[in-house]
Amino acid sequence: MEVTPIPIESYKVGFIGAGKMAESIARGVVQSGLLPPHRISTAIHSNPNRRTVFQSLGISTLPDNSSVVEASDVVIFSVKPQVVKNVVVQLKPLLSKKKLLVSVAAGIKLKDLQELAGHGRFIRVMPNTPSAVSEGASVMSLGGAATKEDGELVANLFRSVGKIWTADEKLFDAVTGLSGSGPAYVFLAIEALADGGVAAGLPRELALGLASQTVLGAASMVSKSGKHPGQLKDDVASPGGTTIAGIHELEKSGFRGTLMNAVVAAANRSQELSKS
């Protein structure tokens, strides 16, 4: 199939769905300067608060989803997994091969999306909630007719809200277990660290501030230093010191094994849900 190149200097993006993820991506794209807001659109939402959010960014709000598709070169389906198939079917007459289709709906496979749309110029992306603060971790997989240029265009869109990797779709359940569900594990860890600080005598506000900034700083060191996290851990743990005493307690409680089990359990659950 001959794929029509998308004009990089003038292409338009439309969001089907106006929820938090669509808002995060749209906000990132606008704030990064990647696209001017008038080249982004979504349908007028029944919830006036959602409409106000998009309009405040300068994004076009159109009468319905059909209008969004007609106005766009790239169509991003950002609706709940249980409704995405129906939405694609409803819009199928407008989803020509000239349009690059993107889905961020969890658990809905490319094979199904391509069959519903009638062509394979589809890219599936698995983002996560820190995209809302431009620190997202996203993974994408290209459909059968999506070109290398299509992939780069989508990667640029999602780089505006964090980092993005390309992987085989068969890895998406594991991606869900790690980066999709992982923020919740880290929130639990931050809460527990703060509780530990309170137990050791710190005021609650100070403990929470220290806990959250410590996790942020540690993650940045792993991301920016190029060192293995084990090496960074060793650098902090001096002989007979405070850190190794704390690490010893974590090891006695099976800390690493518990986190590994959490990722695997979430990945297994994702696999179950995608089959239902």
From TrEMBL:
The keyword Ubl conjugation does not apply. NADP(+) binds at I16, G17, A18, G19, K20, M21. Its EC number is 1.5.1.2. Residues 169-273 form the Pyrroline-5-carboxylate reductase dimerisation domain. Signal peptide: none annotated. Pathway: Amino-acid biosynthesis; L-proline biosynthesis; L-proline from L-glutamate 5-semialdehyde: step 1/1. It is found in: Cytoplasm. Residues 12-107 form the Pyrroline-5-carboxylate reductase catalytic N-terminal domain. GO terms for biological process: L-proline biosynthetic process. One of its GO terms (cellular component) is cytoplasm. Gene3D superfamilies: NAD(P)-binding Rossmann-like Domain, ProC C-terminal domain-like. Pfam families: F420_oxidored, P5CR_dimer. Keywords: Amino-acid biosynthesis, Cytoplasm, NADP, Oxidoreductase, Proline biosynthesis. InterPro entries: 6-PGluconate_DH-like_C_sf (IPR008927), NAD(P)-bd_dom_sf (IPR036291), P5C_Rdtase_cat_N (IPR028939), P5CR-like_CS (IPR053790), P5CR_dimer (IPR029036), Pyrroline-COOH_reductase (IPR000304). Transmembrane segments: none annotated. One of its GO terms (molecular function) is pyrroline-5-carboxylate reductase activity. It catalyses: L-proline + NAD(+) = (S)-1-pyrroline-5-carboxylate + NADH + 2 H(+); L-proline + NADP(+) = (S)-1-pyrroline-5-carboxylate + NADPH + 2 H(+). NADPH binds at N65. Belongs to the pyrroline-5-carboxylate reductase family. NCBIfam families: proC. This is Pyrroline-5-carboxylate reductase. It comes from Corchorus capsularis (Jute). The lineage of its organism: Eukaryota, Viridiplantae, Streptophyta, Embryophyta, Tracheophyta.
